[in-house]
C-alpha cells in the first residue's frame, strides 16, 4: 500500500499543479469593470432628489456592479467625503476644479485597492493653460478638469491608463479644443498602454465633438465602447433629468472610450430606479473590458 501511495504522489502533484494553473489563468483573464457616473452635484433645490437622499444608492450601485474603476463627475467635496466613507475598498484621485484642492466640482477617479496599484496620477485643466489651477478655457462657462492615472493590475502586472473628465455644457470651442487637449494628453501620458477615457461629454454620438474623439483618420483617436461591445444592454440614452425628459428626447452624453487593444465584452446603461427614486439625473454607464 505504501508503494502505491508513493507512485500516486507525482500524479497528484501534477493534478494539483494543473488546477492551480487553471485558477491562475482564470484570474489573469478576469475582466475589468469600468463605470462612468455623473452623480449630480449636491443641489439644495433638488428636493427629494437631493444628494442626501441619493448618496447611499450611488455608493451601493458602484459596489453592487463590482466596478473596479469609476470615473465620477460633478462631485463636490462633501460628496467626495460621503463616498469615501461608503466605499472603503476604493482609493480616489482628484481635486476641486476651482482651486485645485477642495473647491468646485471634482472629476474624480476611483479604483479598487485590492485590484490595482497606483503608479502615477495627476490632473490638468481644459484650457489654453492646462497646468494653471482654476483656469477656464476658450468660451467655456465653467472651469473644466481632467483626472488621470496609471494603474497596475495586481493580477497581471500590466498597466492601464485611465482618464476622466467633464466637458463644458455651453462653449463650442471649449468642447472642440478640450477634446484635442484630451487626445494629446492621452498620447503624451498614456503612450502604448491600454487606454480608458470616461466622462460626461455634453454631446450626442452624432455630434462633431464625439466624431472628433472617434475620427479614425487621427492616429490619436479612441473608440466608443458601445460600438464594439460583444453585448449591449439598456437604453441608448444617459441623461434624463431625474426622469423629467420624455423618453424620445433623452440623449446619450456619457461615454467610455477605449484604445490600444482593449476588448469590450459588455456595455450597459443602468437606467434603473428604486421605485420613484433615481440614482442621479444621469444613468451610469458600465463596461467590462479585457
TrEMBL record:
Keywords: Endonuclease, Hydrolase, Nuclease, Signal. GO terms for molecular function: 3'-5'-RNA exonuclease activity; endonuclease activity. The keyword Hydrolase applies. It comes from the Bacteria. The keyword Transferase does not apply. InterPro entries: CCR4/nocturin_mRNA_transcr (IPR050410), Endo/exonu/phosph_ase_sf (IPR036691), Endo/exonuclease/phosphatase (IPR005135). Gene3D superfamilies: Endonuclease/exonuclease/phosphatase. CDD domains: EEP-1 (cd09083). Residues 35-282 form the Endonuclease/exonuclease/phosphatase domain. Residues 1-20 form the signal peptide. This is Endonuclease/exonuclease/phosphatase family protein. It comes from Candidatus Phocaeicola excrementipullorum.
Amino acid at each position: 500500500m505504501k508503494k502505491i501511495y508513493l507512485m500516486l504522489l507525482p500524479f497528484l502533484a501534477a493534478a494539483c499543479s494543473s488546477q492551480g494553473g487553471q485558477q491562475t489563468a482564470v484570474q489573469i483573464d478576469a475582466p475589468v469593470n469600468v463605470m462612468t457616473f455623473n452623480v449630480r452635484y449636491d443641489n439644495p433645490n433638488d428636493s427629494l432628489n437631493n444628494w442626501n437622499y441619493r448618496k447611499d444608492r450611488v455608493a451601493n450601485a458602484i459596489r453592487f456592479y463590482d466596478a473596479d474603476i469609476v470615473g465620477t463627475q460633478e462631485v463636490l467635496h462633501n460628496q467626495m467625503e460621503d463616498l469615501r466613507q461608503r466605499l472603503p475598498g476604493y482609493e480616489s484621485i482628484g481635486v476641486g476644479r476651482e482651486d485645485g484642492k477642495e473647491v468646485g466640482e471634482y472629476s474624480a477617479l476611483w479604483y479598487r485597492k485590492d485590484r490595482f496599484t497606483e503608479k502615477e496620477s495627476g490632473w490638468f485643466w481644459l484650457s489654453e493653460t492646462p497646468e494653471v489651477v482654476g483656469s477656464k478655457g476658450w468660451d467655456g462657462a465653467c472651469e473644466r478638469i481632467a483626472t488621470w492615472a496609471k494603474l497596475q493590475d495586481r493580477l497581471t502586472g500590466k498597466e492601464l491608463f485611465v482618464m476622466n473628465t467633464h466637458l463644458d455644457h455651453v462653449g463650442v470651442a471649449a468642447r472642440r479644443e478640450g477634446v484635442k487637449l484630451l487626445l494629446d494628453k492621452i498620447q503624451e501620458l498614456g503612450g502604448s498602454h491600454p487606454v480608458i477615457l470616461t466622462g460626461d461629454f455634453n454631446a450626442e454620438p452624432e455630434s462633431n465633438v464625439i466624431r472628433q474623439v472617434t475620427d479614425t483618420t487621427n492616429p490619436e483617436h479612441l473608440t466608443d465602447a458601445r460600438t464594439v461591445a460583444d453585448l449591449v444592454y439598456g437604453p441608448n440614452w444617459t441623461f434624463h433629468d431625474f426622469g423629467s425628459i420624455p423618453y424620445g428626447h433623452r440623449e446619450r452624453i456619457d461615454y467610455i472610450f477605449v484604445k490600444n487593444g482593449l476588448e469590450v465584452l459588455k456595455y450597459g446603461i443602468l437606467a434603473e430606479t428604486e421605485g420613484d427614486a433615481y440614482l442621479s439625473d444621469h444613468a451610469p454607464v458600465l463596461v467590462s473590458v479585457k
